[in-house]
Design a protein that fits this description.
By secondary structure, the chain is an alpha/beta fold. The protein has one domain (7-186, 215-257): Survival protein SurE-like phosphatase/nucleotidase (Stationary-phase Survival Protein Sure Homolog, Chain: A). The chain is 29% helix and 28% strand. It contains 7 helices and 11 strands. A 9-stranded mixed sheet has the order 3-4-2-1-5-6-7-11-8, with helices on both faces. Strands 9-10 form a two-stranded antiparallel ribbon. The protein is globular. It starts with 6 loop residues before the first strand and ends in an 8-residue tail after the last helix.
Length: 259
């Protein structure tokens, strides 16, 4: 009896030309069929946007791995990959390898994490992978990240994941990480800065900038990376704060009496 190989859908938010995307596709190709569906341009910090008010175009790119490029967002890429390109069972969604960490509050902005989240929403086990460096890294570090992702993907294919949960993976940019830590989302946030400038006609325009602020302690995604460990954080679709649900209900009870 012929063994059926898994189908793995790969995307990112850095665009088709990102080096992490091709490395990821090549390593995951050792596990089964890989289909890459990527945005046609940089989509970092685009969050979980989907395209509703304009058309999305897709194009097949000649490559050793089946590769498609779209004019849509990372979340669009997952939907198009599942329902238009593959049109069959997808066993795993992997997003990355992102250029830069996705820790703390970053995950709410991240197109990388959002692509994986869209996979979870579609009922598919999903992984988001980021390399915690904004500079160019040695090829051997990218290869290490790709190899680690393959090993993790093999385990997810074997054991699955809890319903509505994805794995957010952040890898330190060193040749030999000290190990793996299972972590919680850290407290990294940003101090916003608005830069105002003027165009030649005198009209103002703005750049958004920010400086990171954090006080992460042991157990967080950011502290793991700082210590030289790979961070794996389970993230769930359901964002309800069950811990404080009753507290909020009691504190604002009077609103129920106004109707």
């Amino acid at each position: 009896m012929t063994k059926v190989l898994p189908t793995i859908l790969v995307s990112n938010d850095d665009g088709l030309g990102a080096s992490g995307l091709s490395v990821l596709g090549r390593h995951l190709g050792k596990l089964g069929r890989v289909v890459i569906v990527s945005p046609d341009r940089q989509r970092s910090a685009g969050g979980h946007a989907i395209t509703l008010k304009e058309p999305i175009r897709i194009k097949r790119i000649p490559d050793g791995i089946e590769t498609w490029v779209t004019t849509g967002t990372p979340a669009d890429c997952i939907l198009i990959g599942i329902y238009e390109i593959i049109k069959d069972k997808v066993d795993l969604v992997v997003s990355g390898i992102n250029h830069g960490a996705n820790v703390g509050i970053d995950i709410t902005y991240s197109g990388t994490v959002s692509a994986a989240m869209e996979g979870v929403i579609c009922g598919i086990p999903s992984i988001a992978v980021s390399l915690a460096s904004y500079s160019e890294v040695k090829e051997c570090i990218l290869e290490m990240a790709g190899d680690f992702t393959r090993k993790l993907a093999e385990l997810v294919l074997r054991y699955g994941l809890p319903k509505d949960v994805l794995l957010n993976v952040n890898i330190p940019p060193i040749e030999r990480p000290l190990g793996v830590r299972f972590t919680h989302q850290g407290s990294k946030r940003y101090l916003p800065r608005i830069i105002k400038r003027f165009d030649p006609s005198g009209e103002p325009y703005y750049w958004l900038d920010a400086s990171p602020i954090d006080n992460d302690k042991d157990g967080s995604d950011l502290s793991a990376i700082r210590d030289g460990y790979i961070s794996i954080t389970p993230i769930k679709v359901d964002m309800t704060d069950y811990e404080h649900l009753d507290e909020v209900k009691e504190l604002y009870r009077e609103i129920t009496e106004t109707l």
